[in-house]
Amino acid sequence: MMNEQLSLSLRLNDEAMLDNFVWGNNSLIQQQLERFLEHKGERFIYLWGASASGKSHLLQACCQPN
Known about the structure:
- The longest helix has 11 residues, at 27-37.
- This protein has helices at residues 27-37, 55-62.
- The protein has 2 helices and no strands.
- The protein is an all-alpha fold and 66 residues long.
């Protein structure tokens, strides 16, 4: 039985920021993510969309330090 936690070699894209995401008509998602990051909204967010719709950009942007 292995009790060691393995780390993944992942790097955030430093250019993925909420400020440079093209929100278009998705202002509700923008508001909910901002509230989530301020710990004022939901504790969990499930976000889905078509391929190349910006899901990875938003995930990485939410992981950036303030």
